[in-house]
UniProtKB/TrEMBL annotation:
Protein name (database record): Uncharacterized protein
Keyword line: Signal
Source organism per UniProt: Micromonospora chaiyaphumensis
Pfam families: DUF5122 (PF17164)
Signal peptide from the UniProt entry: 1-18
Amino acid sequence: MAALAAAGGALPPSPALAVNATHSTVVGTNPVDWTPHALDGTVYRILQIGNRVYMAGSFTKVRNAAQTAQLAMPRLVAFDATTGRIDTTFRPVVNGTVKALAAAPDGRSLYLGGAFTTVNGVAAPRVARIDAATGARVAGFAPAALNNQVNDMRLVGDRLILGGAFQTVGGVTRRALAALNATTGAADASVNLRVEGPRKTSSGATAPVKIEALDVSADGRRIVFVGNFSSVAGVARHQLAVANLTATGATLSGWSTDRYQPQCAKTMPTYLRGVDISADGTWFVAVTTGAAFPGTLCDTASRFEFGAETGGKQPTWANYTGGDTLLSVAITGAAVYVGGHQRWLDNPLGRDSAGPGAVSRPGIGAINPTTGKALAWNPTKDRGVGTQELYATDRGLWVGSDTVTVAGEYHARVAFLPLP
């Protein structure tokens, strides 16, 4: 791989592995020994293209497994998916945190989103496209400027759909959700759902409209997004909304729930943190923070069915942590993996404590997709701020966070749990 890059050759065309691949069984509890280490900051996003893995976040230093040499390779690193060896020829210079990644359809490039404003010394206000082998900017992609950070992104046809804290795109008001032309980077006005209404708690806590996370169904026809808003397309939607995507635009679905309308902690205008759609596109799981409040979906993982596009939707099940934050979720078929800084699952009666029936699942856990009860899988992980990324490939599950111990072993900020 390094020789290819050094010779100026691009990576061979190879599609990205599907986000959250389908598994027939739960992954193992013993992480592989060969993954590299991020020595500071947080790993927010992981993406595999062919046999290369990309790790993005706020870190500035990394090192290979079983080596002591520290490498100054901030915010975005590529390494071999089989050996874990860091590719030191891949060196994009990104001047701020990278929070989102998406593979381009050519298999030779990828998109970045985050808080950065330059890439390789050239203006790139929160979005960029780079060569997957070298990190060089892709010619012809000049993204419309966003005035604040991108938190998540998905490529759907020739549209790069973005969710984040931005309020304008190319100088035009477009709060939290927008699209760019995936080839040129120009603003694409076809995705304009008018996300509005920043929430305000009883103590007066508020924040600008933003999207924390989004996901698109495998067929590209449906998007779910979560964050700080109370209306979409002029219709009430509290923190979570579903929209339909077509080749010509996006329209708000009639699907809605009022379960995220109530307040959780008074300091948190929004408490939705992650969302993932099942591989068959019929259901999804949302995860939350917010502390323990009876009768709410604060600090839970909750499954919802899409079904008919009607209002009043209720969760099929909800698994409660008992007062601890969940930040990430990945559905694989065999399991719904959840990550955060939780101590327990199956804890509906816990109030920052282990209530009756609670099971210990520090930092990471797995839930039965049908019953909503915790599976026996329990590798354990130190908690920190929490597990920010869960990404399943056809070989296993990647875990990204701000902590350094998984299954009692040193795995700084990134670990891989293989399928048995």
